[in-house]
Amino acid sequence: MKNSVIESNSLERPDREPANASKTQITLQINSIPHTLRIEPRVSLLDALREYLDLTGTKKGCNQGSCGACTVLVNGDRILSCLAFAVQYDGAAITTIEGLGANGALHPLQAAFVEYDGLQCGYCTPGQICSALGMIKEFNAGLPSAVTKDAAATLDLSDEEIKERMSGNLCRCGAYVGICAAIRDAFRFEVPR
Amino acid sequence: MKNFAYSRAQSAKGAISLISLNPNSKFLGGGTNLIDLMREDIEQPDALVDVTGLSSSGIAELPDGGISIGAEVRNTAVANHLLIRERYPVLSQAILYGASGQIRNMATVGGNLMQRTRCYYFYDEASRCNKRTPGLGCDAIAGFNRMHAILGTSENCIATHPSDMCVALAALEAIVHVEGPDGERTISFDAFHRLPGDTPHAETDLKPGELITSIQLPPLQFAKTSRYRKVRDRASYAFALVSVAAALETGDGKIRNARLALGGVAHKPWRAYQAENALTGAKVGMETFQRAAEAELSGARGYGYNSFKIELAKRMMISVLSEMAEAGGVR
Question: What is the ipTM of this complex?
Fold first, then answer.
C-alpha cells in the first residue's frame, strides 16, 4: 500500500488554537516518512495521527486505554497511542496500519484477517493487527505470559497464549475466533519450535 | 484537557530542579495512568517533566546478590529479565498478570508505584470523594463497592491500590530509592504507600519534588520458588479482586520462612505480617495455612458488595500455600 500521507510536513491549524497556547515542534517518523508538527503538549499521539496528519487508519475507541483500538508500533513495540502525548515520541519511529502493506499488496497478517473473517465491522482491526505484530515480536524475544506454564521451556503459540497476549484488544462484534485463527496462521512459520 | 508545559529531563538532578520551578508540576513516566487522569480533569498539572529518558543502570545485579531496577525501566523489560525470572519469579508473574501487553510496554517501574486508585467514585466527578476533594465524603462506602478494600480502611476512604507489581514488591521487601531537593534517601516498601486514615489524598511517603530513581530487591534465596495468583472478573486484562504474592521455604516438615502480600484488598499493597508470623516455624499443612489465613483476615471488614473478598482472600492464601508446599516437596 502506497503511503497516502498528505504532502505538507508542517501543519498549522490556527482555528484550533486557544489564545496563549504554547506549542512544541516535534518530528515523528511515521511509516518511514518524517513529519514535523507544531502542536500543544496535550495533543495525544492518537490525535496527532488522526486529526493533524490525516492518518485515520488508527482508531479512537475508548480514549482511556481500555480497548486497544489505537494500538500503534513504536520501534516495533506495541503501545496505546491514546495514553501517549505526541511530544513524548519526538524522533521516534512509528508504524501505523497504513505502513504495513507494500507495493499495493496487503501485509500477510492483513490478508490472514480477510481470509479467516477476523473482523465484522472492522473498527478494532487496525489495532488488532498492530497489536498482533508487537505481540509476535515479544513472543519471539522469549517473553512469557500470565498463562505460560514453564517460562524456561520453549514457548508455544497456542490459542490460550494468543488470547492472553491479545487481551488488551477488544472486539465488540466478537470476531475473536477469526482473529485467533488469522494470527495463528500468519505466524505459523515465524514461531520457533 | 488543560494545557501544560512539557520538558524532558536528562538527569535526576535536572528533573528535580525542573519540577521545583513550578509547584503544580508532575513527573511523567509512561503516562498510562496520569494521561487518563488529566483527560478526566482529576489531575491538572501546569507542567510535566518527562523522566523516561533518564540514564540509569537499568536492571543490574548488586554485590549482595540483590537486583537494582531503574525507575524508568518499562514493565515488560522487568518481567522478561532473566535474573528477575530466575530469582524473583513472583515479580515477573505479577507484572504479566497486570494490564495488557501495550500498557506493560509503556508503563515504567516508578510510575507503577505512583498509580492512583481505579475507584469508580474517584473517577466520577458527580460523586463525593475524599481523595479528589478532602472532607467532601465518600460515596463508595455505601455504594457499589465490589472492587473496594476490606483491610486498613477508614471512614473516609475504602479505595484499593490497583497495582499487581507492587504486591510482589511488598512480599519481596523492596527498597525504594528516591532523590529530592534535600538529597537522596531510601523508603522501605511497606512505608512507601499509606493507609487512607484521615488523609486519603496523601497516598505515598514522597515529599514534594521527590523522584523515585530505582527499586532495590534485597537478596532472598527462597524467592526462587515464589509465585503470584490473581482472581478477577475477566480471565485477563482486569484489576484484581484479590491477588496473592507468596514465597515459602520449608524444611523438616516445617515452614522456615514465609513472605505473603495481598492485592485488591487495601489502600496499599498489603503485606500479610500476621499470616507470616503464624506460618514461620509451624508445621507444613492445611491446619497451619488455615490458621495463617484466619489470622490475617481477622481484622477485615466487608462493605456489602465486597464482603466476598474476605473469604476469597483466605481461600486464595490457603490454596497458594498448599500448592507451593506440594511443589517444593515437604522435607
Answer: 0.96
